[in-house]
């Protein structure tokens, strides 16, 4: 494949297995039963090979070190971390490590050389439960090693490496999830439950007996990977595995290119012998990628042909989609170098995270990218705003029900997306969800959301919010709406006899934790709509109000506006979204009816009047971003300068002096 070919794969991140050896004997693991050793060999990545990959491929700026074995058994791990740090290559161990046997000097090196993330596989909350799967493992020692990492992080006030507790779910450990989650929180670790591999490699270990309990604990509403396929129409973590063939290909410790994290039975070439770029774009691996997209027939010499995930894709015709393999812009080594200098402290990490967003938003703008190290957080934020559409006051008419997508089962209708003066990202869409369909498995993300059901009936799945009956599911009817905080797990399924139409607001800005931030909330306007007691004029009633991680304050209220009533034009210091529920209003020069959406941008004048003959009812959401004194001051100073330039009196005085 030649340079310039659109199919050329040259990823900024690769996966380079530091070890295929492991001291544990986990029953379902092909490393423990010797399968990987027979085909891949048992060994360690050598420092000289690691160094050559970094030296010969300057476009590689990130490397994942974990896959089949335990990275901490590699005797040259510290040397590799040190060299990657000096060459500005970010290292990760996100696939997982058991953390049973680690020298304290290596734990210190994780912090010193800025390992970005470390996932620890801990499948229990005590030694007895943990060792049933992590055979030969020492639960107490793992926890002590985590505490040691935290001590080293505290000494230098670093937030790296980010720690994650991965809990593989079995029948024998399901009752300890809550205890493990609590321990993870005390240790400052993210917590994630994962379904077991079941029969992907071996016969299932500790199969489920209490299905109801397991469904609650997974938060997926499923017990097994087979149930996941039936419910969501694709394999569990399929996109995470198959997409690696494009976005972060897997390379064995001896250079053999495996493509993904599942394959251990064959390779696509050798990166150490043929060169990384050549081996990642060989005819064999390119053919495999086309197979995953459903564009080529299976071929006996392609490792994917033997994979159960591919075999199920072939049976169902559910091939990889282009959006699943789309690569995000990779960080440059210059940015990693800047991170290595600044990310040791939490305060500066926010600046670099923000600048990373700017880099992605300004791809192709060399002047903006080169300016990064010299500008303050406020100015960087303003640069980013200039690269994205600025939200303006507008009416968005809606006519329900909207048309559905019978092939995909879910169809979004974007209403607006952009930046406001005090919110980095704010968007809204109305979507149609077909009967028995789910738009995505339960997921978490940095954005906060409000979802309001307009028609139909849905069931929301909330892994982090079990209801009173012990399940993780809640029903929503038209008029119900929910608030999802940042990183709060959720999804929804249409359970009515017709397609569901729902409205979604989504936003994100610089995060700031506070003690009284709004939790998940479930609300309804149905009682408000049924209430026939209406006072004359404009009458608002608060539903909720409080700070969030991304907003200084989020407020919701319902309002009634009787015929002929209204309020004069005014300006709000925050963005406002209004959904009309009943009746009609007139605003922004337009007549607005039921289900129509109104958006008022911060600082823009707007008023409202009821021109109809019935009382108008609507729900209001106020998005109050945190003031950016730097940017606000810059805008005021700029406006003042323009005012002076455009002032005719000032020019006349100047001309009089010159004359």
What does this structure look like?
The chain is an alpha+beta fold. The protein is 30% helix and 23% strand. It is built from 22 helices and 27 strands. It has an 8-stranded mixed beta sheet. It has a 6-stranded antiparallel beta sheet with strand order 9-25-22-27-20-19, with no helix packed on it. α4 links the parallel β3 and β4 (117-121). α2 runs parallel beside α3, α3 runs parallel beside α4 and α17 packs parallel to α19. It is globular. The N and C termini lie far apart (72 Å). The relative contact order is 0.08. Mean pLDDT is 84; it is low at 345-386 and 629-633.
Task: Produce the secondary structure layout.
Blueprint: E1 13-16, H1 35-40, H2 47-56, E2 62-64, H3 77-86, E3 90-97, H4 104-112, E4 117-121, H5 127-133, H6 139-155, E5 162-169, H7 177-186, E6 190-195, H8 211-218, H9 225-232, H10 238-242, H11 244-247, E7 250-251, E8 257-259, H12 271-274, H13 276-280, H14 283-292, H15 308-316, H16 333-342, H17 346-361, H18 366-370, H19 377-387, E9 394-396, E10 410-418, E11 425-433, E12 448-455, E13 458-461, E14 473-476, E15 480-484, E16 491-494, E17 500-508, E18 521-524, H20 526-530, E19 538-546, E20 553-561, E21 566-570, E22 575-582, E23 585-587, E24 590-592, E25 597-600, E26 606-609, E27 616-624, H21 629-646, H22 648-658
Parallel strand pairs: 1-2, 1-7, 2-3, 3-4, 4-5, 5-6
Antiparallel strand pairs: 7-8, 9-25, 10-11, 11-17, 12-15, 12-17, 13-14, 13-16, 15-18, 19-20, 20-27, 21-26, 22-25, 22-27, 23-24
Helix pairs in contact: 2-3, 3-4, 4-6, 16-17, 17-19
